[in-house]
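Could someone model zinc ion with this protein?
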Amino acid sequence: MSNIIKLTFNPFQENTYIIYDDSKECIIIDPGCYDASEKSFLSAKIKELGLKPVRLLNTHCHLDHIFGNAYVAKTYNLPLEIHKGEIPVLEAFLPTSLGYGITNVEASPLPGRFIEEGTSICFGETTLKTLLTPGHSPASICFYNEKDSYVIAGDVLFYEGIGRTDLPGGDYQTLLNSINTELFLLPDNTIVYPGHGIKTTIGHEKVHNPFLS
Ligand SMILES: [Zn+2]
Ligand SMILES: [Zn+2]
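Reply:
Sure, complex below.
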């Protein structure tokens, strides 16, 4: 049984997830910790729970999801793992930050390992399956835990909402297709942990999501 901690960071109110199990190994997905106090908060949480971070993953590389990549990679000596198709987004990190008037960010490390559709993410006693769900960004991925019935959805699907598609590499029809052919094939009781806002379920979104009915 894995446990999920949600920490909400940075001016974009992005959800960073720590997933761990009884082995005490944990993975960190989309570290959005932005300033020194948010970075300390993340580390304090990991220490408090006695966890050992073993992987650093990004669902996609928009700035709000990767502000803390450098900190986590350095502090825990972890390679960054992303889908290859997100490299252009990763490369745009510093210029995009400047565009928002954000100047005090630390460049993300380059990926040390690539994740593909279907890749199993294993740590401790837990396995997550990688789903390829483009549309919000060119190669957004989601991480699905079949055993514990949840999916880490990045900015693909939100509580009664979907990710924006007006950023470079975004496409509305592609996003709807990703949700319909990947996420909506998961069981209705699957809990969706999104990149922003509160959690939901696949069953709830099938009925109540105004973009997908
Ligand atoms: Zn995004
Ligand atoms: Zn986001």
